[in-house]
Amino acid sequence: MPKQKNHSFSDKIIKILKEDFGQKYQDIFDKSWLIQYLNIKTRSADSGSKARGSFANIYAIYVLVEDYIKNGFNKKGNYKNYDGAKFVDLFTRQRKLPFGQKLQNHALNHRLNEEFKKYFPTSKHLPIIRDVTTNKYWFNENLLIVSIGKKKINTAETIIKIIDSYVGVKQSSFETFIKACEEITKLQSVDSNKAIKFIKDLLAQNVDARIFEIVSYSILKYYYHDQIVYFGFSQKNIDKHNLILYKTGRTNANDGGIDFVMKPLGKFFQVTETIDVHKFFLDIDKIERYPITFVVKSEKSKEELLKKMKENAEEIYSIKSIVKKYMDCIEEIINIPMIIERLDTAVKNGYTKSIIHEIVLQSKVEFNLIEDEDNSEDELGEE
Fold first, then answer.
1. How would DSSP label each residue in 58-110?
2. Is-above-0.70 flag for pTM?
3. The pLDDT of residue 116
């Protein structure tokens, strides 16, 4: 088993192992592939709200191990005769967990197994066993049972405790972040510079992708808010419209590559952390090569970003006409410096408080501290 790096949450894992297994805790930690995997996946636990959290693969483990315990297999054995858990039950349960409301089915179907194999290529076992004909699922019991000498120890309940502890830390972190936003909202009339610095700090490159998307949206919404266009079906009937930016759903959602839409221009925005042309062009293909604006979490100039993208595209696609078609679909690149410029404009127009309020609102929805109106189960089907 490869040697794993410890981090702040590793101490919490060790504490749980000590409580459950006493002096055997280190052997359990060292010999369990699954606990080693959770140790990797919980690195962000104490890194604050700006650190990316990992929930999809962890929750795939959680719901299957929870089902295993619920049916008493950790006590009575005989799991090999179990007819399996239903996909719909597992998927519904995932979405009821904290931060899980918009999780999709990818982790259950392949991503957990793929990532586990990446970290532990010599392991004979993968976490999820799936029967595609019956759509039933099992957790690989071999990863739950650790052999210490001649004794076999079932770690199922410990796995649940570790995940519960991780989720608790992340919840506390995000709730602290929300409270900080709310405090800044109250104080912004007294110290507006502090409020503006707080917003700008949320645009740093180490910020969680979800928070970056939320903050970008909040700024751009009020940047465009006072801009006016004129539309009509005839010269005699021209109406005045304010530009309105809409957030199309949760961050990281499978929504066809569209994060924001602007009315009435029909302008599409996609937020991204990378300038990988494969990712960019995939997003363009999803919307039938409709012009799209990319909001990029980068300090590089838009000229540098476009140049790098074109160079990468030319390396991948040898046909210039194909490269040109894709590059022509990039309507605009908005980088971090441009977002900050637009923040400054919105602040001058008196929207500091509104931007912070929007960040709080969107964060509460994103992290399930309040419910949004969209609670559909339209992603329940198979991948």
1. HHHHHHHHHHHHHTTHHHH--GGG---EEHHHHHHHHHHSTT-TT--SHIIII
2. no
3. 94
